[in-house]
Amino acid sequence: MAPKTPTRPRDTAARILDVAEGLVQVRGFNAFSYADVAAELGITKASLHYHYPGKGELGVALLERYTTRFTASLEEIDGRTTDPVEKLRAYAGLYLEVLRGQRMCLCGMLAAEYQTLPEPMQAAVLSFFDANEAWLGRVLEEGRAGGSLRFDRPPAETARLVVGSLQGALLLARPRADLDGFRDAAELLLATLA
User: Fold this and answer.
1) 90-131 pLDDT, tens per residue?
2) Burial (CB count within 10 angstroms: exposed 0-12, middle 13-18, buried 19+), residue 66
3) CA gap 155, 109 in Å, rounded
C-alpha cells in the first residue's frame, strides 16, 4: 500500500469551503455548525478554526468564492454569445443547474437569513446581487437598443425583477425537485421581455 499523501493546507481550506457551501445551499447558514463540516471531512474542529477562525470568516470566504465563480460564468456567457436573449437564457440556466443539484443559490439562501448574518457577510450578499443586477441591466439595455427585448421600466428595475423572479422560481421548484416547473417559469419570464 502506498503511503497516504498528506493533505496540503490549501487543499483542506478548499474542501472545507466545498462542504460548507453544500450545507448552506441545502440547510442555510444558521443550520450548520463547524462540527457538521468536521464530521463530513473527518477532521477536527481545531483544523477548521485554523483555516477559518470563526463562522463569519468562513461565510465571507464562501461568498467571495461563490461570487468569483458566478462572475466567471457571466463572463463566459458574454464570451459565448452577443445575443441578449441567449444571454438571459444562459443566466436562467445557471439557476437551473443549482436546482439540478437539489440546492438553492448560495446568496438566495443567505438573503433569507440576512438579518442574522455578520455585517461583512451582509455586505457580500448585497454586492453579489448588485453585480448580478448590473450585468443583467447591461444585457437588457443591449437587447432594448437592438430591438430583441422590450420592457417599459428602467433596465435596473427590470434586472431586479429578473433576479427576484428566478430566485423565487428556484425557491418554489426546490421542494418538488421540479425542473420543468422552474424551466417553465424562466421561459415565461423571458417571453415577457422578448
Assistant:
1) 999 999 999 999 999 999 999 999 999 999 999 999 999 999
2) buried
3) 25
